[in-house]
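Hello,

I think I submitted the adenosine-5'-triphosphate job twice by accident. Can you confirm which output corresponds to this input? Input:
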Amino acid sequence: MLRLEAVELAQEGFHLSADWELPQGAIVAVIGPSGAGKSSLLSAIAGFFPPVSGEIYVGEQSLSGLSPGARPLTILFQDQNLFPHLTLAENIGLGLHPSLKLSKAEQARVAEVLEQVDLAGLGERKPAQLSGGQLARAALARAMLRARPILLLDEPFAALGPALKIEMLALVEKVARASGATVLMVTHDPADAQRIADLTVLVSDGTAHAPAPTEALFANPPAALQAYLGQ
Ligand SMILES: Nc1ncnc2c1ncn2[C@@H]1O[C@H](COP(=O)(O)OP(=O)(O)OP(=O)(O)O)[C@@H](O)[C@H]1O
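Support: Only one job matched these inputs. Its output is below.
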């Protein structure tokens, strides 16, 4: 369970409040106008942007004082950051050990996630020898290997074509449901939310609104969502 308790973010004229919690295992879309603070919200949870007040909890554990790497989560950005000089298997292995000294069991685990994202047999390739969709799948595989209870996705598939994006969303859903991870996914496409998100957080007017069931929210959008959707 992820809980934001009276969280206030502020930075040069920008302000965002959040006060809600998510059930463990929920897939949650984060939508709202450009500049509203969607990325800032994820950055705060990940530990890159400290709130001016409030607390963020995972279960009973407060995340205050925990560095980004020590938090029980993985964040995936649009810029997938695979290292060009490492093979795909090595890039994914970094999710386990920065030193890349993997045991036989860990190497087998890397092969297993490669297979899960449909990249079996491509482990020895370098990123330059992969397509955009394969790179996106590789980055997701690395995130999966970390097996943290929370996965934060900041528009990681925005640069992919429609068919590939749908494929990646399906993969996220499959992986999240299988592992029981909670997913928070920033997207600019309402269809992404409707495709996989149980709940949707609307970020607008200085507030990250409490998560609402996606279907009901879009069936009866509040004024701020109507404005965002151009209705
Ligand atoms: N490093 C920074 N320094 C100063 N201001 C920043 C910084 N990063 C973001 N901001 C500002 O904080 C506000 C929220 O930005 P944020 O990126 O969180 O919005 P967003 O909803 O994710 O936008 P988009 O949909 O365009 O990615 C904006 O006003 C932005 O200009």
